[in-house]
Specification:
It holds the Pfam family DO-GTPase1. InterPro entries: DO-GTPase1. Keywords: Plasmid. It comes from Deinococcus gobiensis (strain DSM 21396 / JCM 16679 / CGMCC 1.7299 / I-0). By secondary structure, the chain is of the alpha/beta class. It has 11 helices and 9 strands. The protein has one domain: P-loop containing nucleotide triphosphate hydrolases (Rossmann fold, 3-Layer(aba) Sandwich). About 40% of the residues lie in helices and about 15% in strands. Helix 1 packs across helix 2 and helix 8 crosses helix 9. The two termini are about 15 Å apart.
Length: about 290
């Protein structure tokens, strides 16, 4: 049996998409769940919030659980999805510390496919951010304050790493853990899922959005990934933006029935209400590769 690894940084929408994905597998989508998942607790809060028209809360840093969900398609192809519900800070922590638990190493090495969630609107750094920082560093202090501490000196020389570059580094690390050569063409099936699609002001195809928002990652994937092993999708798990006010109820969302909300944007740019399509593509690709 194949198994998929799901990953994403802070605020990428892993839990919300996961909750809606699970609900879709119960309602005649391209993929259906086989039996009951061992532990649905990681989705309970999100499912309850969605059912009442409220914005689901993001995963707290101290929460870390895993859901194993077995799904199959109309052709009978089956896969296990390892849906870790960890705070996005844990994703960034892998880059910072470069220390991997045995559990994480096993997940990466055993994963036959990867679903990487990226929220485009929180990946791009303003074009003048670094320029402004350098200007600030170049100003002479007009006060008679004491000399800067060692920590302050270090901070002054830190160059912020673009989120775009962090994704490139993270993917490189995953390939290294799997034993892939640095310049080897990767055939590890990968779907990049661009989340919160409804936030984009002028969306085109998912590949074009990735190129615009994450040019370093887009270039890296074009250069190192086998085209047949890569797909880029967009998704709006809820179909619309929610009010950030705590407890606010979206009556329009409720009136249109939560289980019918949300959509994916296929690589061609076409919109579809079946939120399971990105994973269905991965499942088909995995079995085609094995055959």
């Amino acid at each position: 049996m194949t198994n998929l690894l799901i990953a994403g940084a802070s605020k990428a929408g892993k839990t919300v998409y996961g909750a809606q994905f699970y609900l879709r597998t119960q309602a005649g989508a391209a993929l259906t769940s086989k039996g009951e998942a061992e532990d649905l607790s990681i989705f309970h809060k999100a499912i309850e919030a969605i059912a009442h028209g409220r914005k689901p809360e993001r995963t707290k840093d101290e929460e870390s659980r895993t859901l194993t969900l077995e799904v199959s398609d109309a052709a009978g192809r089956t896969t296990e999805m390892l849906w870790p519900d960890y705070a996005g800070e844990s994703f960034a922590d892998l880059l910072k510390r470069r220390v991997f638990t045995e559990e994480w190493l096993t997940r990466v090495k055993d994963a036959t496919g990867l679903l990487l969630l990226i929220r485009p609107e929180v990946t791009a750094m303003p074009a003048d951010a670094l320029k402004s920082r350098r200007k600030g560093q170049g100003r002479k202090s007009t006060t008679t304050s004491s000399s800067p501490s060692a920590d302050e000196k270090v901070q002054d020389h830190l160059v912020p790493l673009l989120p775009d570059a962090q994704y490139v580094e993270w993917v490189q690390m995953m390939r290294h853990l799997r034993g892939e050569g640095r310049l080897e063409r990767s055939r590890w099936p990968l779907v990049v899922l661009l989340t919160c699609w409804d936030e984009l002001k002028d969306p085109k195809t998912p590949a074009e959005v990735l190129q615009h928002k994450c040019p370093l990652l887009a270039s890296y994937l074009r250069g190192i990934w086998a085209p047949e092993a890569l797909a880029i999708y967009g998704v709006s798990a809820l179909g619309q933006a929610f009010d950030d006010r705590k407890g606010h109820v979206n009556t329009t969302f409720l009136a249109e029935r939560p289980e019918r909300q949300g959509y994916v944007i296929c690589p061609t740019g076409a919109q579809d209400s079946d939120l399971t399509l990105p994973v269905a593509w991965l499942l088909k690709r995995l079995h085609d590769h094995q055959d």
